[in-house]
Specification:
alpha/beta, Quinone Oxidoreductase, Chain A, domain 1, 372 residues, 26% helix, 2 domains, six-stranded parallel beta sheet, globular
Amino acid sequence: MLTRAAVLQEVPGSYQATEVELEDPRPGEIRVKMKAAGMCHSDDHFAVGTQQVPILPIVGGHEGAGIVDALGPGTTGFTEGDHVVFSFLPVCGRCWFCSKGMQNLCRLGASIGTGARFTDPTSFRMSMDGKPVGQLAGLGVFSEYVTVHVESAIRIDESIPFDVACLTGCGVGTGWGAAVNSAEVRPGQVVIVMGIGGIGINAVQGAAHAGADVVIAVDPVPFKRESALKLGATHAFADIAEAADFARSLTDGQGADSTIVTVGILRSKHVGQALESVRKAGTVVVTGLGDSVIAEGDINLHQLTLYQKRLQGSLFGASAPLADIPAQLEMYRRGTLKLEELITTRYTLDQVPQGYDDMNAGRNLRGVVVFD
């Protein structure tokens, strides 16, 4: 079938709406009529070239929710009409990492960088003018219809709005889990969140939910600082130096218990600044992405060793998507996790370039593409 999709055809470039051909689902796959797609900064990294695309053209988008439209032969676990959200990291449930509860590190995750089927890096579900078209993260949800592997899909309750649900496929879990799982925030602690975008705002919520007494948001954009104060932050500053000084003023000069780095474009200086901001035995959690081909070093190794500080990478918030996505949506239904408030602007498929312009200008916490 033909479907309209926002396609990246050159780097640097932008996602432009055009028609692509979509294969019918094979065994173990489902076709989904998309209803909403979140606009994550990661997709823009590929468009500007700070992350390397596996193939061009490629359909963007990896936060999505929709309705199952068709099943491949012999595919089980879903029925037509099911409401689903996609986890940008697939979960097989069987590999060593999954068996240890580390679903975010599932071995299938190594395959999402190909833009092709997980089982065959030469097999693509989308094409244009007879040439293969990749799906970002194996999903490519900036499309009216997508065919995906069942291990990327999670059934959700039909009462959950699609524009809310799609956010849990990446941004919510990445930020929330960075605080709750990776930083292991505890009641009474002082926490700094460095960068208040679609990830950082959820790290703020996670830290507050975990019981931190002081949650300090850091962002140069006033709108984002104000948003953080509405969603769990107790204080907000324009730069990390101010935030670190304030944390030290509350802790007898020691610093924050943890600092979570969620800046849009990661540089080593951000990690170094975060390391300076935490106390002895404090934790720095890094979730941001930088240029994949630039290696930098700007960390105080003296403090890392002698102050026994912990530097922790965090992929998808160290979450278990099969359990955590439904749990986050249940928290939303109970009112303990704010999701509707994260959506600043809704866009059409043709407005995806404008959405990323707005994100880069600091006008959005999260933009969402909505489909008819």
